[in-house]
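**Discrete fold encoding**
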Amino acid sequence: MYNLSKEVTFMSMLACGLLQIDPSRFNSAHDFRISLTARISSLAQTGVGLIVLPAYSVMIGRALQLESEGRSPCNPFELARSAEPDGFSEWMDFFAAAALSNRVYLSPGTFIAPVGGGFQHRAPVFSPKGDLIASQLQTHLSETESQVGMVAGTDLATIDIGRYRIGIAVGTDAWYPEVGRILALLGVDAIVAPTAVPAPYTVWRQTSGLWQIIQQNQVFGIEASLGGSWLGVAYQARSRVFAPVEATPDGRGVLAEVTSTSMVEEMTVLLDPTDLRAARRTFPIFDHFNISVYEARLIDAYLVGRPTRVKPEGR
């Protein structure tokens, strides 16, 4: 990591910090709390404005609390049921306080929430004032998720951070091109994807996920990935920040990545909108979209009851 505070002199740029987490390294909820407090503070001191954590990070502390009581949930859905009636409110309060004390926007990963007879997969975002400003639901479900009763969301939120607009792809949404296209049509500059992918998480599987969404829509992508073992599953971390291939010197479409084999790592990156504008000038992808089809079909299918501009201003 390096200090960004002297570099971030223009409000149009967004300095982003990313944490990679291995839950198996923590012996207790107290250890988890102390570690995250220190790591979030360390990133904030570099001058970042947004910090992103992997999927399930809101749930890890509660799982450790239950384990200390002799209760060991075997999967995130069982954990969500076991955490009732308070759910993950204690850890939501912890992350809200972390955002407030460090004056950063904080995307603390995701959690599974019971709803009716099923579940929802949520990704909260806290403002530098500690306010909950978004709680994005996963909108596309795998066959397994459908079988356990997960309920899909029907809306995609955007968050404005300075001059940047951010969208969130929760869980398997990062592998659905429609999600990236809708967010691009809503004018986002970057898509945040907290992921937790069981090993092996190959470069090709990652390429078929957020990487391809970024290339198809010429925005930035921030993937914070869970690593190590948690609730009996081995996860492989591949935390990366993506950009259009036209905006990366080597043409890989990877702006930054955790190169260490460690499951616990962090990185910082500066997202410059001039890179996006240059990529769009090189290949103006929005000029090739079938806008009439989107107007006729896409909004009704995915943005129920929500007015939107189909072609973002300035693109």
